[in-house]
């Protein structure tokens, strides 16, 4: 696991993708560090993403338990809405792609902790109202011509109900005022 406090991580992850950040655990399964590639242009989104992992493991639900994996836990309604979203449906279709790299990336993007972290990013960006953050998010949800499109973020209209349920979860936890 990385120990570079500045987060200069031109390393590759399990699926051969360049890592922009990492959330690491100690040997007991407790959160240990968040490391961000400070040179990456979307380092703010990466920071939110890694904080999303922290909240999933240590903030929502039982400590040392990925709440996003719990079918009937605090994120149960979020899980249902995410599964019903167009973006996740498209990723699920791409996970059966003949191109094994595309299928592997899509499968990785469909893992519950990754879906939670990406939805947390979009939730934060929605509340920030910062046009630069929205532009950074758009890079991950605007189809590119001539290539394979993997929607790693939701279109605004596809995310409305997901955003609302995240807000409700945070209010139940006392993290947001009513």
Describe the structure.
It is a single chain. With 178 residues, this protein is mainly α. It has one domain. Helix content is 49%, strand content 6%. It has 7 helices and 2 strands, in the order E-E-H-H-H-H-H-H-H. Strands 1-2 form a two-stranded antiparallel ribbon. Strand 1 and strand 2 form a beta hairpin. The relative contact order is 0.12. The N terminus is likely disordered.
Write the layout of secondary structure elements.
Layout: E1 21-25, E2 31-36, H1 43-59, H2 76-84, H3 86-94, H4 100-109, H5 112-128, H6 131-138, H7 156-172
Antiparallel strand pairs: 1-2
Helix pairs in contact: 1-5, 2-7, 5-7
Number of domains: 1
- Sheet with the most strands, sense and barrel status: 2 strands, antiparallel
Say how many strands there are.
2
Instruction: Kindly report how far apart the N and C termini lie.
Output: 39 Å
Strand order, biggest sheet?
Answer: 1-2
Give the H and E element order.
EEHHHHHHH
The average pLDDT value, as a whole number, equals 86
Q: What structural category arises from helix and sheet content? A: mainly alpha
Helix count equals 7
How much β-strand is present in the residues? 5-15%
Ranges with pLDDT <50 over ≥5 residues?
1-18
The protein's oligomeric status is single chain
Q: Which value, in Å, is the CA radius of gyration?
A: 16 Å
């Amino acid at each position: 696991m990385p120990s570079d406090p500045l987060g200069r991580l031109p390393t590759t992850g399990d699926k051969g993708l360049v890592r922009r950040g990492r959330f690491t655990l100690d040997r007991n399964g407790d959160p240990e560090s968040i490391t961000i590639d400070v040179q990456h242009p979307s380092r703010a989104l990466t920071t939110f993403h890694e904080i999303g992992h922290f909240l999933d493991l240590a903030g929502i639900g039982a400590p040392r338990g990925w709440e996003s994996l719990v079918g009937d836990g605090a994120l149960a309604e979020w899980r249902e809405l995410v599964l019903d979203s167009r973006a996740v449906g498209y990723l699920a279709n791409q996970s059966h792609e003949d191109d094994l790299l595309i299928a592997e990336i899509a499968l990785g993007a469909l893992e519950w902790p990754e879906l939670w972290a990406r939805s947390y990013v979009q939730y934060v960006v929605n509340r920030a109202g910062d046009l630069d953050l929205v532009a950074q998010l758009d890079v991950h949800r605007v189809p590119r011509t001539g290539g394979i499109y993997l929607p790693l973020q939701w279109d605004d209209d596809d995310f409305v109900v997901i955003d609302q349920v995240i807000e409700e979860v945070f209010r139940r936890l006392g993290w947001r005022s009513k």
